[in-house]
What we know:
The protein is an all-alpha fold. It has 3 domains: 9-195, Growth Hormone, Chain: A (Up-down Bundle), CATH 1.20.1250.20; 205-257, no CATH class; 275-530, MFS general substrate transporter like domains (Growth Hormone, Chain: A, Up-down Bundle). The protein has helices at 2-13, 16-35, 40-47, 51-54, 56-68, 72-101, 105-133, 139-167, 172-175, 178-191, 205-228, 233-255, 269-299, 304-332, 334-351, 361-376, 379-387, 395-435, 441-458, 462-504, 511-530, 534-539.
Amino acid sequence: MASQTTGKNNGIAQHIPLLAVLMVGLFLAILNQTLLNVAIPHLTTEFGVSTSTIQWLLTGYMLVNGVLIPMSAFLIERFGVRLLFLIAMFCFTLGAFICGVAPSFSIMLTGRLIQAVGGGVLSPLVMTIILYIFPPEMRGKGMGIFGLAMMFAPAIGPTLSGWIVQNYDWHLLFTGMVPPGVIVLIVAFFMLRNIEEPKKVKFDAIGTFTSLVGVGALLYGLSEAGNDGWTDPVVLVNIIVGLILIIVFVVQQLKSENPMLDMRVFKYGIFSLSNIISVILTVSMYAGMFLLPIYLQSIRGYTPLEAGLLMLPGALIMLVMTFISGTLFDKIGPRPLAIIGMLITTVTTYEFTKLTMETSYDYILVLNMARYLGLSFLMMPIMTAGINQLPSQLNKHGTAMSNTLRQISGSMGISIITTIFTSRSTFHFAAMSDQMNTSNPSFMQSFQSLVNSIAQTAHLPISQAKTMAVSTLAGQAKIQSTVLGINDAFFWATIISAVGLFLSVFLRDVRKDAVVQKEKTKKLDTEILMLPAPNQASEA
């Protein structure tokens, strides 16, 4: 047994340089998704376009990235991992170079879309290679390595981009990715080999159309719902059209003999359960990533760099703990990690429902670190638990499905949290405004005191002091209602996390299924050997 383990470790050890190259490429692609948020105001001024126009640098990247993920299983089978990885990294690096030297918005957008072509394929592609390298009993460690890029990159992105924008030129966000991208390309060209030979798979025109347009329309509808509302005609049309085309795609794939994305992965119970928990977790995680910057920068007045630095310790904890949780997964399985992680995530999310204007920076820092500690126990172990149940021929379809659901749930999570935050902020502001009326003696008394205070302090006439007092109270009500709206959104994120905690109890380690089956087979073989031979039975 020890020699078998040593042999497996040695087999994995020879892949370490290759894993390092793959992780750097994946890290760059995922980091690129979050770097641009802080630079948006600078780009608006640089290119002289509106905020809604500049947002297409984010929306366009998300759409191209998202629609390619469902096709990744077909692309891997058709072109092989070597050629596909080289094409993906070439597109990503070329797009980064174009963005770095772009003289106009249109060229900048072209570069971003080219980058997205590479970024959309890299996550499922690298995951498929890791699943091939690591056997099921060591897959937690492999997925922990994958999680280093998957979880650390978006966590450190805001800090890094804030630091670059504040101290250097925004062009560095893109030109800085070109040298490491070129290095990854060169090393991968000489080191990367196909894990299986490419096959001449028939192109599925109907599946491709319904997948691309369906996922694209759904993602666009969900991304716009947070800004324009769920009843906006454009939002409704895109979501409905997207859902219809995705249903057509699913039905068509179920009938296909060689599906582009094999829906039979959902026949495996733990894979389905792990993806449901992963969707819940993604929604909860994005709540913190979306709401905290609003609270810190818009409400408390911290700079983007200060807000990013608050997220950094949590990112460092995740960097260390993701690999450790992968190792623990190999030893104790998914259920203990999922329960502990979801419990920490649920409790810390609930603590964020108590934010006030006096909540200290250090307290938020520690609370966010604890939240990321919980998340580090979850993402990769839960995904690995599901993938482990799939037969090897379905691995690439399972990774494509998991990454597609993660992309959709990320957009859905931001839209849901944005809607809750906006509607509850409006509700609280209206409630506060109702209390500020002249028929309320208590309010009129405090209002008159404020007017007198402003008049004496600023040496203003009573009429001007009243105007300033009204403006001051309205501003305070706006700020307070926004804080309460953030608290309400975190409350719903807590409920979502609690559902994930409940479902985590039903996770099981599917690797034990194989052990049990092996023991049953061995016992059956022993019983067969103990039976008398046919000639002995006849003589008796």
